[in-house]
Amino acid sequence: MSGGSTIWLTGLSGAGKTTIAQALAAELSAVGNRVQVLDGDELRTNLSAGLGFSRQDRNTHVERVGFVAQLLATHGVTVIVPVIAPYADARARVRSSHETRGLTFREVYVATSLQECRRRDVKGLYARSAAGEIAAMTGVDDPYEPPTDPDLVLDTEHVSIDAAVARVRSLLTELKETA
Ligand code: ADP
User: What is the role of this chain (predicted)?
Assistant: First the structure.
């Protein structure tokens, strides 16, 4: 069975990870690919229920999601993961776990600035953080370690949703060409 691949979209809240993931999944499904989006917020209500936002809990969440991604990829699924994953060590462990099993892992850094993410404030989290209603907001008063060697960087302030999706698709096409 041919191995699938995991495309991990990392970046701040509001950077555009989910938007790109959903648009990409729709395009790939439309041309017959088996695709699964693993949405971080949704998985926090089941797979990672009970976990908080400490460094340890965030990394446990990332490793659990990474494990599920890996299982799906083993069955040839293209797995798209729009999850903040703020710590480089946990992202590296997920990559290495995929690579050990001959599965492809690609890291896409959705590098939209904090200023722009704050301006969008899609979920109202930045406002709640500023009001002191939530603590440990990634990029504000909790760390975000940007990837040092991502496979692709997308700043959605300057790259449209369609262009972003096209660029991730080229990353996947390159995978097929080199497979
Ligand atoms: P995240 O999943 O990273 O928290 P979301 O995808 O939920 O972010 O939210 C990003 C917001 O930014 C959406 O409202 C989306 O419509 C908007 N947006 C504006 N331009 C872009 C773009 N070029 N790419 C992705 N999202 C964009």
Answer: Catalyzes the synthesis of activated sulfate.
